[in-house]
Amino acid sequence: MPVKYTRAEQQRNPMKPEQINSLLSDCTLCPRECHADRLAGKTGYCGMDSTLSAARAALHMWEEPCISGTKGSGAVFFTGCGLKCCFCQNREIAIGDCGIEITVDRLADIFLELEQKGAANLNLVTGAHYVPQILAALETAYRYGFGLPVVYNSSGYEKMETLRLLNGYVDVYLPDLKYLETELARAFSHASDYPERAKEALHEMVKQTGKCEFGEDGYIKRGTIVRHLILPGHTRNSIKVLEYLHETYGNDIYISIMNQFTPIYHQDKYPELNRKVTAREYRKVMDAAMEIGIENGFIQEGETAKESFIPVFDHEGVLPRKKK
């Protein structure tokens, strides 16, 4: 395959092997700052050492319309997570129980294969703990003509220093803003610093991408879309989140208000999470969004709180296809 570049190298800041090794040997990539020597096989809060692991790499149709559209988003679901919310719908991969170990070169091949399948973009799902390896894989993919917009799909619990490594690589940020109430962040994600960290991260994301830009085909080309999942019994937190986002960023970002909370796992410690969001709760949040004046956004309608909206982590697209 001929080698060619599609993204100007001066827009990026490629990492040297020694930089990657330094980051992984004393890992502080996420706000947990575990200082784990992942190169030596140690793991931190995310549960992952330096070996890449992914559970699925396929066309994903369930993102926002401007991301999935009719083509599908080329989603790579990485194993492990530095946040691990108690209600996580991707719990299998978040806790590291589902995934296949791959090399950086294989990850680069996956990026190229998703482009060949017609993906609208490359969607990196929960990859904060693998940022050095992801950047190395992108550099390899670029040498072989990779040209898809890159979406960084995040819990919002990020370090600005790590996000700055992504500058020049990521076109669209797709973070959550889960909580602005510290007690909820502590109870449900064991991260009382989530509101502060997520605010800082979002500021860096918007700084990098600027105002949302869309192509003639309706797909987003650049910008930040912030997701917020309404939690049962916690509409006050949701309204605080929407007020903050609109007051801080106005129409520079898009806000995706989600009602798909699914009580999949029995919550002995969190009985309030053992149900779906009610129609009344959803209307309350939507009425508040209208009063706040939010214009750029996405809402969910219909039966979104179903397990069928959760991907099957069957390792599709992760291993190389067998030659016939």
Structure description:
By secondary structure, the chain is of the alpha/beta class. It is built from ten helices and ten strands. The protein has helices at residues 17-25, 65-68, 91-94, 104-116, 131-143, 160-165, 182-189, 194-209, 235-249, 279-292; strands at residues 52-60, 73-78, 100-102, 122-125, 150-154, 172-175, 213-214, 220-229, 254-258, 297-299. Strands 1, 2, 3, 4, 5, 6, 7, 8, 9 and 10 form a ten-stranded mixed beta sheet that branches. It starts with 16 loop residues before the first helix and ends in a 25-residue tail after the last strand.
Head-to-tail CA distance between termini: 20 Å
Structural class: alpha/beta
The average pLDDT score comes to 92
Number of strands: 10
Please tell me how large the radius of gyration is: 19 Å
Taking the sheet with the most strands, its summary is: 10 strands, mixed
| Overall outline | globular
The low-confidence runs, each spanning 5 or more residues with pLDDT under 50, are none
N-to-C SSE string, H for helix and E for strand: HEHEHEHEHEHEHHEEHEHE
Helix content: 25-40%
So how many helices? 10
User: Strand fraction band?
Assistant: 15-25%
Oligomer: single chain
Short description:
With 324 residues, this protein is of the alpha/beta class. 31% of the residues lie in helices and 16% in strands. The protein is built from 10 helices and 10 strands.
List the topology elements.
Blueprint: H1 17-25, E1 52-60, H2 65-68, E2 73-78, H3 91-94, E3 100-102, H4 104-116, E4 122-125, H5 131-143, E5 150-154, H6 160-165, E6 172-175, H7 182-189, H8 194-209, E7 213-214, E8 220-229, H9 235-249, E9 254-258, H10 279-292, E10 297-299
Helix pairs in contact: 4-5, 9-10
